[in-house]
Design goal:
CATH topology: Methane Monooxygenase Hydroxylase, Chain G, domain 1
Mean pLDDT: 92
Strand content: under 5%
CATH class: Mainly Alpha
Structural class: mainly alpha
Distance between the termini: 49 Å
Radius of gyration: 20 Å
Number of domains: 1
CATH architecture: Up-down Bundle
Order of helices and strands: HHHHHH
Number of strands: 0
Shape: elongated
Helix content: over 70%
Low-confidence stretches: 219-230
CATH superfamily: Phosphate transport system protein phou homolog 2, domain 2
Length: about 230
């Protein structure tokens, strides 16, 4: 494979991943809107999106593996292909999370609306923003932007822990609201996972651009201060 053809294949791989990214981001936004308004027709859209996302995941994986088999990419090109494979998997998981939330909406169809001590829309907004920023970092090959995503994860984790504490209390003390509280709890958990997937994508962008593996190393997730003394 000539260098020009190889570069064209890399560009096509990136374009296909961005198509999948758009589908995954749209799916999570639709799932949250379905949760907010309890609209089962939106749940149907999420289900159809999952089918398209799953199909694209297989196609992208195969294309990436074909590039690895036909060419022996070095350095940054190799890191790019490996990152695409990993990001591809996390985007599929974002689609799964959206489907899980839409399933919760279906469960809630016959339930009375309850005022629960959890701000799902705020948590959803933060998780969706993490996905959006991690994908923008990928588009722009911007490791610094990716690092900002890593700093956002703690806030979602904190909200998820608070939701768990508040909603389990509701289930213990107000048993008639237990079904609604459980659905909210599972939705919060799905959003926490979405934030984790966005974090994974951001880590893969950093790996691709800088060759740095920042997984499990919080001290490495912030860029060093060039003016620091020590």
């Amino acid at each position: 494979m000539t260098r020009i053809r190889f570069q064209r294949s890399l560009d096509e791989l990136k374009e296909n991943l961005l198509v999948m990214a758009g589908l995954a981001e749209q799916a999570i936004q639709r799932a949250i809107e379905a949760y907010r308004v309890r609209d089962l027709s939106i749940c149907d859209l999420v289900s159809r999106s999952e089918i398209a996302i799953n199909r694209l995941e297989r196609d992208i994986d195969q294309a990436a593996l074909d590039l690895l088999a036909m060419e022996q990419p070095m350095a940054i090109d190799l890191r790019f292909i490996l990152s695409v494979i990993k990001i591809n998997a996390d985007l599929e998981r974002v689609g799964d999370a959206a489907k899980n939330i839409s399933d919760r909406v279906r469960n809630m169809e016959q339930m009375a609306v309850a005022d629960l001590p959890v701000d799902i829309p705020r948590m959803a907004s933060l998780a969706a923003d993490m996905v959006r920023k991690s994908l923008q970092a990928f588009i722009e090959a911007d490791a610094d932007m990716a690092r900002t995503v890593l700093t956002m994860d703690d806030a979602v984790d904190t909200m998820n822990r608070a939701a768990y504490k508040a909603l389990t209390k509701v289930m213990e003390e107000e048993s008639h609201l237990a079904p609604q509280a459980l659905n909210a709890l599972m939705t919060a958990r799905a959003l926490e996972r979405v934030a984790d997937y966005a974090t994974n994508i951001a880590e893969d962008v950093i790996f691709w651009v800088q060759g740095a593996d920042v997984r499990h190393h919080k001290s490495l997730k912030t860029a060093p201060d060039p003016h620091a003394m020590g």
